[in-house]
Amino acid sequence: MFDNAPSILVDGEPLDSIAVSDRAIHYGDGLFETIAISHGRPQLWSAHMERLLAGCSRLGIPLPDLQRLAAESEQLCRDHSQAILKVIITRGSGGRGYRSPAQPAPRRVVIRYPWPAMPDWQQGVRLRWCRTPLGCNPLLAGIKHLNRLEQVLARNEWQDEGIYEGLMCDPQGHLVEGTMSNLFAWRDGVLYTPDLSHCGVAGVMRQQLLAMAQQMGMRCEHLRQQGPAWEGMEELMISNSLIGVVPVSQLGEQRFEIRRGLELRRAMQSWLEGR
Prior knowledge:
- The chain has 7 helices and 14 strands.
- The protein is α+β, with helices and mostly antiparallel strands.
- Strands 6, 7, 8, 9, 10, 11, 12, 13 and 14 form a 9-stranded mixed beta sheet that branches.
- The two termini are 38 Å apart.
């Protein structure tokens, strides 16, 4: 293995492979969480586990032992000041066919990755529109399941290193999210975010930002609006558990102010440090 290869535990054992019969390989039958490691500890662990358990309940996957999962994650995080932790729960192995095993044996995979290079957030980031649509399925909306082919296709639409993220819409053109992030917008004193009741991932950092905004007395609204409506906002921001909250300087040819985005980024950092 390469020196910078991730450390991996599969069901608590130091392995770097899973059985080819695993339903994650055949059907994307499982869930995952991507968690920032800071000073040897996974950040926002409880929020990530809450979403993971909700996803398992939605898919009918037996709930994982959170104490065991926490111990395995701590084992990989220890002595790492900054890194990325990925937690994967699959339904486990099964025979041919979509029908789930009568008594599934879920599989746990925990991976530690090096922390990647990040842009200068103070300058904001550039976004673009993606052609690839997100399919609508309320039964899967909000959870972070393993089937990410739509995001793969969307991310492969551009190679320009100057563009950090691409925005995705549903088949009717309603803006939903980025390939790896949630979106927020600011206009006339109101914080907006796309409605995720039909599709999209309800991000952990999105949840934190909405909670912080509510505590600060900000008015927040969930919108189901087509792309052009968002281009008319005063400011745009993206969020996920690794980057926090980041202002958007440009979407396509449209430029945006980043003042409010930087203020929310600083406020979110203080909010998380105080929790």
